[in-house]
Amino acid sequence: MPRCTDAFDFNTYVGRQAKLVEAALDASCPEQYPETITKAMRYSLLAGGKRIRPLLCLAACELVGGDPAVAMPTACALEMIHTMSLIHDDLPSMDNDDFRRGKPTCHKVFGEEMAILAGDALLSLSFEYIARATRGASAEKVLRVIADVGKAVGAEGLVAGQVVDILMEGNGGQGAGLQTLQYIHAHKTGALLEAAVVSGAVLGGADEAQVQRLGRYAQNIGLAFQVVDDILDVTATTEQLGKTAGKDVAVNKATYPSLLGLDESRKIADRLIAQAKEELAGFDRKRAAPLIGLADYIASRKS
Amino acid sequence: MPRCTDAFDFNTYVGRQAKLVEAALDASCPEQYPETITKAMRYSLLAGGKRIRPLLCLAACELVGGDPAVAMPTACALEMIHTMSLIHDDLPSMDNDDFRRGKPTCHKVFGEEMAILAGDALLSLSFEYIARATRGASAEKVLRVIADVGKAVGAEGLVAGQVVDILMEGNGGQGAGLQTLQYIHAHKTGALLEAAVVSGAVLGGADEAQVQRLGRYAQNIGLAFQVVDDILDVTATTEQLGKTAGKDVAVNKATYPSLLGLDESRKIADRLIAQAKEELAGFDRKRAAPLIGLADYIASRKS
Fold first, then answer.
1. What is the mean pLDDT of residues A230-240?
2. What was the pLDDT predicted at B6?
3. Which of A57, A190, A241, B274 is deepest in the core (most CB within 10 A)?
4. What count of other Cβ atoms lies within 10 Å of the Cβ of residue B244?
5. H or E element at residue B29
């Protein structure tokens, strides 16, 4: 007879949550006329990513005692935004990538015009969906989430990171020191991860001190996420990643491994994860288990 | 000595309002690091369009007795969204246009990558700005505006219109009858104009009956706007338009003039404008003067 235990099993937890997220994403973006565009949106949105942003959002909401259903529309919106950034990033005039999440990229299947428009439609749907579908939180909190998420996407967030990344590449990676690299990472990846955690916490009813602590947790895992991304670009295969491996080296891009070596990069990632977990110390240990698990997952992921 | 009169002068009114809108737009999108992207955003946002969407939004707010300052962030957001759609529309992989508002298009000046990202950043800023900068309206009303505006942009609005337009063009314009043309116009142009009027009214404190009437006003002027656009493509010069004239004929596109002739198209535009004005009959005549003037302006504009 199996022993009854309340030990937290991360894989079981993630499996269950990811299933909820997939169902919610499916419902958030129904296929409708004109089908070409909703098919293109759904093709990329439902391509089976790791759903880290939604998982972080839901876990932060639960950590502070909130009902994760309140955060689900925002969790979906974060994945829409992430998907938009991938679709536009992969365009021929941007990174010109043919594969993403192990499948042909959106523009390879639907053409460039539809890929641009699918990204635009996902981005506007993300904000619409938070505003329209969120239940169980005050309108003031929902507005704060929209403002925070918007800031994380635009010219002070994700786009800012992409722009500096592009400017550095155009420069042959020359002059991109550790500080610039950190700026790129903090904006290109960190800002949206932070918005995921903070918005989940806000919707769950966190007080300001909790929001601050969770913001720092998110900044640390955000940077760790990107350091690990840099490491995987060197160590993993294209098949493992579901996207082209070795791209950074091919374009002579400044990365953590190229600036500091693989060993030191690994150490930095581990240190960041440890710092992230420290921010969770003041919370109930059992409730914090999902966010601890997600931090470890980010450090140890293979793709 | 000039006679003292309270007669409404549309040009004076528009001049004053447009000046307020320009100042508000300038402040809504400050230049900041990384400058490349904020410069690209400002280049297109502050290129001096007609600002019809902001003007409609402010006028609708005032019509129902609201303070136009409450609607100003939304007015700016509508222009950001309109600008985003122009930037992305002009891209080489879309309409491939070199001129817009009499200036080289965004991608001609800043490159394709920056143009795509400038559009994305303007779109996310639009929602962020409504959420962050609106003062003097309840959070519930602001959320409704965000949901309405989002719907007007995405796969049920502007993008839907663009998609059907592209699909028809790919078809050599064949099979694009009046019904399809109306669908394209209602979504590509009408949806955002309607959102402008309705959101201004909601923020100004309109009741539901007023919102409905103003929605119908907007649908009529939206369709008239596009019929006039079709007419101008035939009758105006590139210099007058600030964008390439004669494009519809060149690509054999289904338009009102191509389907019904210039005279009949003109009559339809006039009828739509008359219908729009009828919807304003129940409002105070003096307060309705700006929206009446804007309807006439849309019908008689030369660019």
1. 82
2. 61
3. A57
4. 15
5. none
User: Domains in chain B, ordered, with CATH?
Assistant: 10-300 (1.10.600.10)
Amino acid letter, B142:
V
Q: Which of B271, B162, B211 is nearest to A119 (CA)?
A: B162
DSSP structure class, residue A268: H
Which string of DSSP letters, residue by residue, matches B147-210?
HHHHHHHSTTTHHHHHHHHHHHHHTTTTT--HHHHHHHHIIIIIHHHHHHHHHHHHHHT--HHH
DSSP at B245:
S
Closest CA to A95 of A247, A230, A233: A247
Mark yes or no for CB contact B143/A139 under 8 Å: yes
Q: Which of B29, B78, B113, B188 to mutate to test the interface with A (most CBs of A within 10 A)?
A: B113
Considering only CB atoms, A93 lies closest to which of B41, B112, B156, namely B112
Residue to substitute from A85, A142, A163, interface B, most B β-carbons within 10 A: A163
Q: Which residues of B touch A163 (CB under 8 A)?
A: 34, 36-37, 114, 117
The torsion angles phi and psi of A139, rounded to 5 degrees, stand at -60, -35
If DSSP codes are grouped into helix, strand and coil, which group holds residue A100?
strand
The per-residue pLDDT of chain B, averaged, comes to 92
Contacts of A135 in chain B (CB under 8 A): none
Q: What is the 3-state secondary structure (H, E, C) of B58-126?
A: HHHHHHCCCCHHHHHHHHHHHHHHHHHHHHHHCCCCCCCCCEECCEECHHHHHCHHHHHHHHHHHHHHH
- Please tell me the distance in Å from B15's CA to the nearest CA on chain A: 31
pLDDT at B302 over 90: no
State whether A131 and B153 contact (CB < 8 Å). no
AA letter at A198: V
Q: How far is CA A25 from the centre of its chain?
A: 15
Q: CB–CB of A193/A221 below 8 Å?
A: yes
pLDDT above 90: residue A254: no
Question: B32 and A156 in contact by Cβ < 8 A?
Answer: yes
Contact B113 A94 (CB under 8 A): yes
Please list every residue in chain B whose beta carbon sits closer than 8 Å to the beta carbon of residue A114: 163, 166
CB pairs under 8 A between A and B: 167
Is A117's CB within 8 Å of B84's CB?
Answer: no
Q: CA A263 to CA B2: how far, in whole Å?
A: 83
* For testing contact with chain B, the best of A80, A83, A128, A169 (most B CBs within 10 A): A128
CA distances from A298 to A184, A223, A284, B102 (A): 18, 10, 21, 49
Average pLDDT, chain A: 92
Asked whether the predicted pLDDT for residue A129 surpasses 50, the reply is: yes
